[in-house]
């Protein structure tokens, strides 16, 4: 149950708040999200953190980049998530010969019964609600850029005409971090459009035993629909309506600014970071913290949400210097150090 009985004044919400009036609907929404998470966890074993982060990305209305070795269930997670949330999902396997028209669609010249010819637009797989872009870094930059407008504006332009995409629209892209031969690194502009970078690790021994035991028998768990599209849209609306405490917002802004070499006061950032997260990163972290709070049945985000989501939201928005990579620095370690110092300052 959400904590909607009392509305602290520091959250900026009054007793007459519309969110308070919708408290029962909010409680029901949180309960349904809990059912969806439990169903996904019954199929995807040993990846609870990755499942939660991916679900947070969807609730926040964003796109998610999933990074992990082959065979860890990235594609299965995307399909299961789409089924649980009632989304129309489609899959595109990115390859070096994939063209933008294979994703967006194209116009074909057709001749009608009266003999007149006209162009007709045939929609590509991007016209769905959840697009699985499998191994997105295997396609050329030209093909990767075909998703830029779709991810940002929820529409595509073909032959001078704009076509709106179904709502909600989300991209779950997978990336193999091991084999880099024949791949094209995602441009920074596209990386920035992913709200979260979720990394899937190898499961522990107990989880791996459970996976093998339950997926090699005759009876397999099948994903089932828990939410309808309108319920997901309502949940995404609730996320944006949750109040943001000033202390949490100030920490988010301070963290993002401290990770930029132009505005930081920390020497390790100045010497090791070529470029840092922009304003979209702060917006993404704010939304992700709200979504995590709602998923856990809390009325407003806390500093613990910032700590839990700072790395997946910010690490793909960093550019380390050559010297930093040679010295073994990583975006995650720098973010952790900066966040620790900022929290001490705001304690």
What can you tell me about this protein's structure?
It comes from Thalassospira marina. The chain contains 16 helices and eleven strands. By secondary structure, it is an alpha/beta fold. Strand 6 (155-158) and strand 7 form a beta hairpin. Helix 3 crosses helix 13 (279-295) and helix 11 crosses helix 13. The protein is globular and about 75 Å long. It starts with 17 loop residues before the first helix and ends with a helix.
What are the SSEs and their pairings?
Blueprint: H1 18-21, H2 23-41, H3 48-59, E1 63-68, H4 74-84, E2 89-93, H5 101-104, E3 105-111, E4 117-123, E5 130-134, H6 141-144, H7 148-153, E6 155-158, E7 161-164, E8 170-175, H8 188-191, E9 194-200, H9 205-215, H10 229-241, H11 246-258, H12 267-272, E10 273-275, H13 279-295, H14 303-314, E11 319-320, H15 322-326, H16 331-346
Parallel strand pairs: 1-8, 1-9, 2-5, 5-8
Antiparallel strand pairs: 3-4, 6-7, 10-11
Helix pairs in contact: 2-4, 3-13, 10-13, 11-13, 11-16, 13-14, 14-16
CATH superfamily of the largest domain: P-loop containing nucleotide triphosphate hydrolases
Total of DSSP H or I helical runs spanning 4+ residues: 16
Helix/strand/pairing class, anyone?
alpha/beta
CATH topology of the largest domain: Rossmann fold
Distance between the termini: 29 Å
Biggest beta sheet attributes: 5 strands, parallel
CATH hierarchy, class of the largest domain:
Alpha Beta
CATH hierarchy: architecture of the largest domain: 3-Layer(aba) Sandwich
Percentage of residues assigned to helices: 40-55%
Label the overall shape.
globular
Strand arrangement in the largest pleated sheet: 2-5-8-1-9
Approximately how much beta-strand content do the residues carry? 15-25%
Domain AAA+ ATPase: 60-232
Pfam family, one: AAA_lid_2
Protein name: AAA family ATPase
GO molecular function: ATP binding; ATP hydrolysis activity
């Amino acid at each position: 149950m959400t904590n909607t009985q009392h509305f602290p004044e520091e959250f900026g919400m009054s007793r007459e708040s519309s969110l308070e009036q919708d408290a029962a609907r909010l409680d029901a929404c949180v309960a349904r999200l809990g059912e969806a998470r439990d169903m996904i966890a019954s199929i995807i074993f040993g990846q609870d953190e990755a499942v939660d982060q991916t679900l947070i990305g969807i609730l926040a209305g964003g796109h998610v980049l999933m990074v992990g070795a082959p065979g860890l269930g990235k594609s299965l997670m995307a399909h299961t998530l789409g089924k649980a949330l009632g989304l129309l999902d489609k899959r595109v396997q990115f390859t070096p010969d994939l063209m933008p028209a294979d994703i967006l669609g194209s116009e074909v010249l057709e001749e009608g019964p009266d003999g007149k010819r006209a162009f007709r637009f045939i929609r590509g797989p991007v016209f769905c609600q959840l697009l699985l872009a499998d191994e997105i870094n295997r396609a050329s930059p030209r093909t990767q850029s075909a998703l830029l407008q779709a991810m940002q504006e929820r529409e595509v332009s073909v032959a001078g005409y704009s076509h709106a995409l179904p709502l909600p629209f989300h991209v779950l892209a997978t990336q193999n971090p091991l084999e880099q031969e024949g791949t094209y690194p995602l441009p920074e502009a596209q990386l920035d459009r992913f709200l979260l970078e979720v990394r899937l690790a190898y499961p522990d021994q107990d989880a791996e035993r459970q996976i093998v035991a339950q997926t090699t028998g005759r009876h397999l768990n099948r994903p089932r629909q828990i939410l309808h599209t309108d319920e997901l849209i309502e949940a995404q609306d609730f996320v944006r309506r949750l109040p943001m405490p000033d202390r949490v917002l100030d920490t988010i802004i301070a963290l993002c600014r401290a990770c930029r070499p132009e505005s930081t006061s920390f020497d390790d950032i100045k010497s090791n970071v070529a470029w840092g997260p922009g304003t979209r990163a702060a917006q993404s972290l704010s939304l992700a913290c709200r979504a995590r709070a709602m998923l856990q049945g809390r009325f407003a985000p806390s500093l613990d949400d910032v700590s839990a989501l700072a790395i997946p939201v910010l690490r793909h928005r960093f550019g380390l210097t050559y010297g930093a990579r040679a010295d073994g620095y990583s975006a995650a370690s720098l973010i952790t150090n900066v966040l620790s110092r900022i929290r001490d300052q705001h304690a």
